[in-house]
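seq:
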Amino acid sequence: MDNIKIGNLIYKLRKEKQLTQLQLAEHMNISDKTVSKWERGLGCPDISLLSDLSKIFNIDIENLLSGELDANNILGGNMKKINFYICPNCENIITSTTDASISCCGKKLKISKPQKADNDHNLTVEIIENEFYITSDHPMTKDHHITFVALLTSDSMILKKQYSEWDLQTRIPILAHSKLLWYCTQHGLFYQETRNLK
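struct:
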């Protein structure tokens, strides 16, 4: 740990929150001299105070201890390249247009990388009344099911949540140049192109 970097970050975050050293100290039930010591790089917050600091500044403890907040590069935001983070415990679905630090159920989530579906994993897609009618004979048990189906274009996403023990049948409006994604609880994220459908 680099006390100088951590101190500089605490100073920067305190200023962003428009807090004096005394106000920050009062929030944490410590002395303002302790805050001053941190900001001058002469010490580091005790482990018992890290959780409070993280909440006050709304940052991860990991970033606080590194003394750095890494900004993401601004990307064009092509929705076909959107990142999916899926919690294996509660099946929460979180998306981002660039890399992000995402946690759920107390664990840091990794990006789910989509794999091209083979014949064993393809969804059945028919066109009915200007909509994609999507079905599958995929198992939909509690332990093995598809949690969502999404249709992506370069500028939009339509996501349909699916539930275990229900048949997978959903309709999504037809969008040109789209890609279909879905998540299987045992095998991960899959995609298939829709351009060959008539």
